[in-house]
Prior knowledge:
CATH class: Alpha Beta
Distance between the termini: 59 Å
Shape: globular
Strand content: 15-25%
Structural class: alpha/beta
Number of domains: 1
Helix content: 40-55%
CATH topology: Beta-carbonic Anhydrase, Chain A
Bound molecules: zinc ion
CATH superfamily: Carbonic anhydrase
Amino acid sequence: MDEVLEQLKDGVRRFQAEVYPQRAEMFEQIANEQQRPQTLFISCADSRVNPNEITSSGPGDVFVTRNIGNMVPAYGEMLGGVSAVIEFAVSSLGVKHIVVCGHSDCGAMKALLQPESVAKMPTVTSWLKNAHAALTVAETLHERDIENRSDRPLLEVLTEQNVLLQMQHLKTHPSVAGAMAVSELTISGWIYDIGKGRVLVAEDGERSFTPIEPLKATADEAPLRV
Ligand SMILES: [Zn+2]
């Protein structure tokens, strides 16, 4: 018996028994409508990153593409899955916002710092070239202690610089450039801290990341003072 497949089937059974019945009406409704997601979310394929969970979104809300290191090859570099997703999301679905989301403890970022760890994986090695400029920028900022970057682990600086680089690459795609030119599309870069549940955001044009402020407790939710 294939244990992993059985675990997956159990998961489907739980979905069918517990999740679907509670929201059957919504599922039936969206099944008969054209999808209209407002956001394209580009994240790492890392199994610990769950775009729907961290944005509290559900079916139909977010168009998602994931790959190793949340990368966006510059237009023309590698015409493939990522470029096609971007073009479709912007030109056909008309998404209003694109997020490039990096995360803590990213294996792709670690591999950039230790290329020998992926030496036997030629496809991965080639894919990581999409972030080489970020590696140079991160190393330079870290070495020269620009904006106190040397106080922080190089991995953290690289993770941020990779997101900023991929945002630049995004703008080389004609569909993105066109929609941004007429203010129909905005983009942002995110860093998701898996262990802390924290999300930092750099809006377009910003060079540093700012934490999203927590929900403020309303009067009803405020703790009782006795
Ligand atoms: Zn990753």
